[in-house]
Amino acid sequence: MKSPLSYILKVLLFTALILAPALLAFRLLDPFKMHGFYDNYIYPSPTANKGMVSLRNFTRYDPVRHFDSFITGSSVSCNYLVEDWQRHIGTQSRPFHFDSSGQTITSLRRTVEYLDSHISADSLRNILIVLSPLSFVQPDPRRPFLDPPEINPGIISILDWHYKAFRSFTDCNFLVSYLHWLADGNPRERSRHNVFYGPHIRLIPEINEERLDIWEDSIDRHPTEFFTRHPIPAVAAADTITPEPMISPKQASDLRAVAAILERRGCHTRIIFPPNRRGILLHPADDSLMNSIFGSAFVNLGSELRTMKADSCNFYDHVHYRPRMARRIMELVYAGNSSGNQTPRQHDSARNTLPCNDFPQAPHPT
């Protein structure tokens, strides 16, 4: 009779023989560009973890550029352009986008802790944190947006990071598009999963800034054609306060940790809750909590810029607005004196708000 140990060893050996080629291919092909540095992380490559891209570009360019100012937060922060921000923090600043996909409040804390440990004592001068209603939503476990191990250290997170990347690599929905791309160089989606970045995204690696020049030109020149190809739901008819507070005790603790670090470093901070087309407003308890944690550095603009957010031409989709709207938000956020004690509640600007809603829109989601 064979011993249980012998049986287990044979099963493990058989499994290893099956997995070894896949593991070797995963390491050599590096489909998600997890190992080393690359000049291009975007199109036509398979989609890489944006938090990892931010980290790699920071590690590569900080020794030369010595960044002292950072834009971070939800994915809408990508469209707050460095050159626009420098109008408010000074052209002598050295900004960098340190954003990640699906950034949670815990990821925000880890990012600020990472900067605290890697930026010299007098070189964390400015930070702009851009939130959204989704910032306070618990992440969907079916769509894991993991922090790189450097941001979230520990053996468990390292193992989880590599395991989930390998699992994604061996997913048939990924492989069907990826293998065709390796064969013919054509980054075409061939499954229900989006595998590739679109060609409309251009990354400036030195500051980790995404530019959507193709879409910008298309919306400016042919808005009806653009929104026919990329329809977005109509703006909410009215703003709505969340029925219950969104900020959990754990998130409140993370936010206090962020505020404590930035205060200790003497960092000039702005943390924004901007307007959104869903019309979601912070619950008064959440607004009060954010004010108690960040003071005048927190700017709640959820109910502002109604005309701009009603105009679809200020958006790429239902969530992400264009740099011209981010530019107007920064004007409000940094209005008043430099300490941020004045935040005038202006509503709309005539600049950059020419309407283009002459095309059918999808109904607003319920």
Q: What brief labels describe this structure?
A:
five-stranded parallel sheet, 41% helix, globular, alpha/beta, 366 residues, two-stranded antiparallel ribbon
What is the H/E order?
HHEHEHEHHEEHHEHEEHEHH
Strand content: 5-15%
Which of globular, elongated, flat, extended, rod-shaped describes the shape?
Answer: globular
Main beta sheet: 5 strands, parallel
Structural class: alpha/beta
- Average pLDDT for all residues: 85
Helix content: 40-55%
Q: N-to-C terminal Cα separation, in Å? A: 64 Å
CA-based gyration radius: 22 Å
Q: What oligomeric assembly is this protein in?
A: single chain
Total count of helical runs of at least 4 residues: 12
Q: Main sheet: which strands, in order across?
A: 2-1-3-7-9
